[in-house]
Amino acid sequence: xxxxxxxxxxxxxxxxxxxxxxxxxxxxxxxxxxxxxxxxxxxxxxxxxxxxxxxxxxxxxxxxxxxxxxxxxxxxxxxxxxxxxxxxxxxxxxxxxxxxxxxxxxxxxxxxxxxxxxxxxxxxxxxxxxxxxxxxxxxxxxxxxxxxxxxxxxxxxxxxxxxxxxxxxxxxxxxxxxxxxxxxxxxxxxxxxxxxxxxxxxxxxxxxxxxxxxxxxxxxxxxxxxxxxxxxxxxxxx
Length: 238
Hints:
Blueprint: H1 8-11, H2 38-66, H3 69-82, H4 84-93, H5 97-112, H6 135-141, E1 149-152, E2 156-159, H7 160-184, H8 189-206, H9 220-237
Antiparallel strand pairs: 1-2
Helix pairs in contact: 2-8, 3-8, 4-5, 6-7, 6-9
Pfam family, one: MlaA
InterPro entries: MlaA (IPR007428)
Protein name: VacJ family lipoprotein
């Protein structure tokens, strides 16, 4: 049976740290990641699970109930098309010219033939698949180490470098959308920006299949930490 999400009273915001095997047991050595803040990270992991279970998932299910799948797909496509701009900036900063060309082509095709990104005709082309580059990857390409593993409140697995990168990603999106709102003559920036943020968050959660404490593994924290760390290493290498 999947392990249930612990309640606040059961944990006191202290993640249950399970011990397996004897003290010299190295059967899980391959899962080890530099995590000097593990007690804090485990507490945040439990907090994120509670936040997700009691707020984000109900909100996401409501979002999915109100908007039919074709509309949600259109929303996802529009957001993904807007995200091509920060991706392009990071491709250029990393000196990845081929990826820059692909991202530029995607942006032009989906903005025009895809009706401002509502549709995604570019993905139908063999060599125009969506690229995934962010500020954290750019910092890694520039030689910055990952630093200690860190579970970001609300956002999930990260590390010091990617937490800084998240701030950079947020700034790029903010500057981009402020420019768009200015060109569209939007006067009430704040209301529109908050609405956009909510839609982005619901869209993102709707397209993430992971659910806390439903992996069926007693080592979920270790597995999430390991998979995230290895994925980021591969993201920077490619």
